[in-house]
């Protein structure tokens, strides 16, 4: 996060969504308050922090002990509806960068881009629309598209495949340790944005190749 700017040349950029392109924190915290109350989970803020970047499909099984598939999907819808009501908004630099990411734009140069999110295929397009972030022309990877979520490499391998590019020629842009680990184990380059987690924690926990404060840098 120094004043020196470096051009990163890759064939594709794979963006995380919540915490990287959009700020959904108010809605997420409110939703976890609701679910912590409903399921007797205790400290909702601690749970929100611990589960950041992971699929609700996985965290609801772990924390809420939901095993019934229909109930699990219904509760994901209920949670994500509350997040939408919280008003997700674009983070600094996100709109400008995604508008240019398919072009030769500084500091990134890439032929293609997509979004790889732990959110569902119902929530993701609504959140992007509310935030004013363009939908990727190639489509995107959501929690519904993979059998294993972040930190497993499957989501970012799927994103690279969607772009028609080998993962090692992609740049993963993430704010969560679980997502950065997913990108690293997929053999992609990783860029951490410090929008939700401190630089020290990201550097220690995920060892990204690059780190910036946010996407305006």
From TrEMBL:
Gene3D superfamilies: HAD superfamily/HAD-like, Putative phosphatase, domain 2. One of its GO terms (molecular function) is sugar-phosphatase activity. Pfam families: HAD_2. Coiled coil: none annotated. InterPro entries: HAD-like_sf, HAD-like_SPP, HAD-SF_hydro_IA, HAD_2, HAD_sf, PGP-like_dom2. NCBIfam families: HAD-SF-IA-v3. This is Uncharacterized protein. The lineage of its organism: Eukaryota, Fungi, Dikarya, Basidiomycota, Agaricomycotina.
